[in-house]
Amino acid sequence: MVFNILKSIFGVGVSVDTTLTSNHVIPGGTLQGSVAFTGGEVAGKVEGIEIDYTALVEDDAKGEDKTFTTNFFSAQVSGPFNLAPGTGHSIDFEASVPWETPLSAVAGRPLPGMRLGVATKLALDNAFDKGDLDELTIEPLPVQAAVMSALEGLGFVFQSADLEKGTIAGSHMPFYQELEYWATGEFADKLKELEVTFVATQANTDVILQTDNPGGLLTPDHNRFVRFGMPTAESGDATETVRAQLEQLIQRRGL
Hints:
Low-confidence stretches: 1-11
Number of helices: 2
Number of domains: 2
Structural class: mainly beta
CATH architecture of the largest domain: Sandwich
CATH topology of the largest domain: Immunoglobulin-like
Order of helices and strands: EEEEEEEEEEEEEEHEEEEEH
Strand content: over 45%
Oligomer: single chain
Largest sheet: 6 strands, antiparallel
Mean pLDDT: 85
Helix content: 10-25%
Shape: elongated
């Protein structure tokens, strides 16, 4: 299936049409597509083309809840070339998806509170022009899906997700994702809410479980969170691993 992501007309009369082979990818995967150009009334020199990954981030500094859109990764998909008047030019591209890219859907279902997108940036005759932002869907890695499935099996109910401004230990992103769950089942009498954060790499993924942590992960209270690692390719039943970590968290809280 082909998704029409961008069609904009730049001031010099150059038309740009970007399509993605699929807008559903996973962290560490590859975004594939093509960028097609048609020259304007005069010749132009394209210095380069980039694909920008963007995200909507929350900033609650000074007690004020604000949101802003930030670029968290750029991939160059073309070097310089000349674009003759009225002629067409098409470039196929493959852009890597960072391992720490946040999730925005699970099994095709959007996560409430998440907004990710991509845009094409064109450098033409020493001027930059950026196209409209369109949705990008990031599905879980095997280990992320396994942890989320284990939480559901233990009675936790997903509520929402967001991106918080700031870089946490082990991460390279200017934000971190929190997946918020409500506790039911066997942990309902010990925990009310649980927030889950992943820090993924190609080989290993850290899982952070936190509860009632007023300062969040930027100023963590070590009695209110646990952090443990799992192989990123792990896709088996993670129930006992997650249960053991939750019990450790409860012990730290003295509950």
